[in-house]
User: Which sequence fits this backbone?
């Protein structure tokens, strides 16, 4: 079989495949034999139907089409093996099927033209001796105090208060009803009754008086200063981005009665406190553990910033043409990850992901997919050039750690091993790059475009703060 290759843009290879006369004849005979064994034609036994009768019964074009449906994929597969081409995705037939049908003659050569995506070639113009700047994240001892304060608030004892009004930090027990506040025009209509807010009635409702308590703006501020037994009308407004669209941006009038005011009695920071909120037996151990955690977190975030700075700089010197197959596959991965997160939040993805939504999301995810692929290909290319490898021992040691942490979960060990191999290799490549680059550390917030990302990472970290 003669195969001619042509290098095309976007990491594609064009193939001109000449199927031999012997193959076109052999496939034709195989299809005829198969049809003959299945044909139920009056006057002939199965397998004994003459070819002219079969052609008359099925039609010449139908039989030739059946032959081509076997010749085309088989010919492309053999051409890929013969040419040692590692294909990505499915081949695309560039020859018109109708033209092939017209040109196909059993016992005569047949030319097929196809295109296949292949792994892109990465042109690394420079990846060593780079000079970059990265933000240094320094350990903040206030993080430890913040966590300790949160735990003190969480396990605080509530003590009834007499003789003073409610203040920030208290917990109050209230009854309330809520109605939509009248507009200026409605206020002049004395006959109009206020419209109750659905679900806007509660008794013995506990409210923690904190500025960022999660209640709609104005509600907590209105309660501050009230006394036990006092009833007051409080005007508040639902945020424009409120989860319930029927209430978003609407003004509400709450009639609130305080039943009881309680203040928090915070526990002392001692060994007993440490034993209640953690696995440590002493407060000194707990504090040391928290300090170590946040020192390590600061170091890891600094290292992440260094790696990101170096890789961003390298990408400026990278030339690579990405095949659509790789991009589409990575977009699929991003959408799957998004769907998993939404499912964890309790959303029905099947209802949410309509065809229009999926189409829009694919378009939005494309730039991220391209960036991910370029990063991965760049790191892989550097590892190959510099012969950076991960040993089986390293992978198995890391796998043992992971399995110990998730021993009660049903996980695909082979898939985890594959992911760990990739992570370990990336870490080694990054370590090598940092050794062969000059990274100047600067204070947080000094680099343009980095502060916002850093703030996002900090927000994620703070969200998960607990002992």
Assistant:
């Amino acid at each position: 079989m003669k195969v001619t290759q042509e290098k095309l843009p976007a990491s594609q290879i064009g193939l001109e495949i000449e199927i031999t006369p012997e193959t076109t004849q052999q496939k034709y005979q195989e299809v005829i034999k198969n049809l003959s064994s299945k044909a139920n034609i009056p006057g002939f036994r199965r397998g004994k139907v003459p070819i002219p009768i079969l052609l008359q019964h099925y039609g010449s074009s139908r039989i030739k089409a059946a032959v081509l449906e076997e010749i085309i994929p088989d010919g492309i597969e053999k051409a890929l093996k013969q040419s040692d081409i590692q294909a990505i995705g499915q081949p695309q037939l560039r020859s018109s099927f109708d033209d092939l049908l017209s040109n196909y003659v059993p016992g005569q050569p047949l030319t097929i033209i196809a295109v296949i995506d292949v792994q892109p070639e990465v042109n690394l113009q420079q990846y060593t001796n780079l000079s970059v700047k990265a933000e240094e994240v320094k350990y903040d001892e206030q993080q430890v105090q913040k966590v300790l304060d949160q735990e003190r608030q969480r396990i605080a004892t509530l003590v009834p208060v007499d003789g003073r009004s409610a203040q920030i930090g208290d917990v109050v027990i209230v009854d309330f009803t809520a109605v939509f506040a009248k507009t200026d025009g409605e206020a002049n209509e004395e006959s109009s009754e206020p419209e109750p807010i659905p679900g806007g009635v509660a008794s013995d409702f506990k409210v923690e008086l904190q500025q960022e308590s999660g209640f709609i703006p104005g509600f907590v501020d209105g309660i501050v200063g009230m006394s036990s037994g006092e009833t007051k009308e409080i005007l508040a407004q639902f945020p424009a981005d409120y989860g319930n669209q029927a209430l978003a941006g609407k003004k509400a009038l709450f009639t609130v009665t305080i039943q009881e005011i309680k203040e928090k009695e915070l526990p002392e920071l001692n060994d007993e406190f440490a034993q209640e909120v953690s696995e440590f037996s002493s407060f000194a151990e707990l504090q040391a553990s928290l300090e170590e955690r946040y020192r390590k977190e600061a170091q890891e975030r600094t290292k992440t910033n260094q790696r990101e700075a170096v890789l961003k700089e390298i990408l400026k010197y990278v030339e690579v043409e990405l095949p659509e197959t790789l991009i589409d596959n990575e977009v699929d991965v991003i959408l799957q990850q998004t769907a998993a997160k939404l499912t964890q939040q309790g959303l029905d993805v099947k209802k949410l992901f309509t065809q229009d939504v999926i189409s829009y999301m694919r378009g939005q995810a494309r730039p991220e997919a391209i960036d991910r692929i370029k990063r991965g290909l760049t790191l892989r290319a550097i590892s190959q050039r510099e012969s950076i490898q991960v040993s089986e021992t390293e992978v198995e040691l890391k796998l043992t750690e992971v399995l110990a942490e998730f021993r009660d979960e049903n996980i695909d060990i082979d898939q985890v091993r594959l992911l760990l191999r990739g992570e370990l290799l990336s870490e080694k490549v990054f370590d090598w790059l940092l050794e062969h680059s000059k990274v100047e550390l600067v204070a947080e917030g000094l680099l343009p475009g980095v502060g916002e990302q850093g703030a996002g990472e900090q927000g994620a970290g703070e969200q998960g703060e607990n002992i």
About this structure: The first helix runs from residue 21 to 38. The two ends are 68 Å apart (CA to CA).
